[in-house]
Write a structure and sequence with these properties.
With 91 residues, the protein is of the alpha/beta class. A four-stranded parallel sheet has the order 3-2-1-4, covered by helices on one side. The longest helix is centred in the first third of the chain and has 12 residues. The relative contact order is 0.21.
């Protein structure tokens, strides 16, 4: 099973990743600058280090950041073709 990538390292993103991991789901956080993000027991990667085989994303950023995050994810190495096939569901 590929990890669930939580885009956003704020309180909401960390809470979602923590809950998933407690439930046995492999989850990681995605940050613009993973070196400045300290979260214990949850891997933090950059958009460029995000594996193209990750097929589940949770976007946990404030509304104004959503357009920038969409661009960063789609511009990540290997993600351009992948993002075109994503079934996007907004909840």
């Amino acid at each position: 099973m590929t990890p669930v990538a939580i885009v956003g390292t704020g309180a909401v993103g960390v809470a979602i990743a923590t809950s998933l991991r407690r439930g046995g789901v492999d989850a990681l956080l995605v940050s613009r600058d993973p070196r400045s993000t300290t979260v214990s027991d949850i891997p933090v990667v950059s958009f460029d280090d995000l594996a193209a085989d990750t097929d589940t994303f949770v976007i946990a950023v404030p509304g104004p950041a959503l357009e920038r995050v969409s661009y960063l994810v789609s511009a990540s190495d290997g993600m351009t073709d992948t993002i075109k096939s994503w079934p996007i569901q907004v909840i």
